[in-house]
Design brief:
Blueprint: H1 6-14, H2 20-31, H3 38-41, H4 43-53, E1 60-64, H5 70-78, E2 83-87, E3 97-99, E4 101-103, E5 106-108, E6 114-115, H6 117-128, E7 141-144, E8 163-169, E9 172-180, E10 196-200, E11 207-212, E12 215-216, H7 235-249, E13 253-261, E14 265-272, H8 278-283, H9 288-296, H10 304-321
Antiparallel strand pairs: 1-7, 2-3, 2-7, 4-5, 5-6, 8-9, 8-13, 9-10, 10-11, 11-12, 13-14
Helix pairs in contact: 5-6, 7-10, 9-10
Length: about 325
């Protein structure tokens, strides 16, 4: 096992970088009761929670929980021109298939690839068997409406729809990044598969830093467009619905993934009870000072709008200290 040099460890502590062990012990385990994990681990439950609370989320087109339901799922796929097929309890973007359009018996995927209906049904069968689920448990395959890239994002994303990951602590947004699909990521907004992670300043809603595979970049690798300084569309609404969705889960430390659809505006894509820590790399900033600032403010006693304002104020103060 490799050990970081002492000077690097000291610098990470100075910058308030949150490590995975501390995240697990002091935030995930402490603030997220295990009994409530199902509200975010199962995307179907998350959708129902959002729907009941009036929080916008992509429309659910069909669900298959058992193999005998795959025929009906296939019929649903044939009835629409574009869609997203995904596991209800998947992780890290695995198992997600995006279909952009249909050409008779072929389904067009990002990057120009095509697949057939039998291929899609076989993929759904693998989802049901737990190939992509957390812990390899039997899963459900869900068919969801495909969202459309907002015009402001079109120049800085390839073959897919970007999302905005908002880290929430005690109901307060503390850090955010946008994940931008690339050809390498196959149109998926997932950093593990080659998407760009771009840190977003909470106070201004603008991109302040961007990384690709932990390497600093200023331009999108496929389009060449400048990333730094670009403003996230409807960013105030992004923060508002992220906080609203977080409130509905009962969890205290989560990541909310929001997509800004071209026609429908910001929508909750999914929630995560174990959000990764790459958001700190994307922002070149540590989470710890912001988390501690929330604790000092006793944020749970504030309204949703006040908590959004508090998160932006804390982020602005942290920026001034760097």
């Amino acid at each position: 096992m490799s050990v970081l040099p002492v000077r690097i460890l000291k610098e990470l502590r100075r910058r308030g970088v949150l490590g995975i062990n501390r995240r697990n012990a002091e935030y995930t385990l402490h603030w997220n009761p295990r009994r409530l994990y199902k509200t975010v681990d199962d995307k179907i439950i998350t959708k129902r929670i959002c729907e009941a609370a009036g929080i916008p989320a992509p429309r659910l087109l069909a669900v298959a929980r058992h193999h005998f339901e795959l025929r009906q799922l296939g019929a649903a796929m044939e009835s629409v021109s574009n869609f997203v097929l995904k596991p209800a309890s998947g992780a890290m973007g695995n198992g997600i298939v995006v279909v952009l359009a249909r050409d008779r018996d072929r389904f067009l995927r990002p990057g120009g690839r095509t697949v057939t209906l039998p291929w899609l049904i076989q993929h759904a069968s693998s989802i049901l068997s737990g190939l992509y689920s957390l812990g390899g448990q039997p899963d459900a395959a869900i068919l969801e409406e495909k969202l459309n890239v907002h015009p402001e994002f079109a120049a800085i994303a390839s073959d897919g729809v970007p999302d905005v990951r908002v880290i929430l602590y005690r109901g307060v947004p503390v850090m955010a990044m946008t994940r931008l699909p690339t050809r390498q990521s196959g149109g998926r907004a997932n950093l593990h598969q080659g998407a760009v992670g771009a840190g977003v300043d909470l106070s201004s809603g603008r991109i302040v830093h961007a990384v690709l595979a932990n390497r600093h970049i200023r331009n999108h690798p496929d389009t060449g467009e400048t990333l730094i300084g670009r403003e996230i569309p409807s960013f105030e609404k992004v923060l508002d619905i992220a906080v609203a969705a977080g409130d509905e889960t009962g969890l205290g430390y989560i990541g909310a993934d929001v997509v800004v659809d071209a026609n429908q505006g910001p929508m909750i894509l999914e929630l995560n009870a174990r959000p990764g820590l790459a958001v700190q790399i994307a922002n070149r900033a540590g989470l710890l000072p912001r988390l501690k600032a929330v604790d000092r403010e006793a944020a749970t006693k504030r309204s949703r709008a006040e908590r959004v304002a508090l998160g932006r104020e804390i982020a602005s103060s942290a920026k001034e200290m760097e």
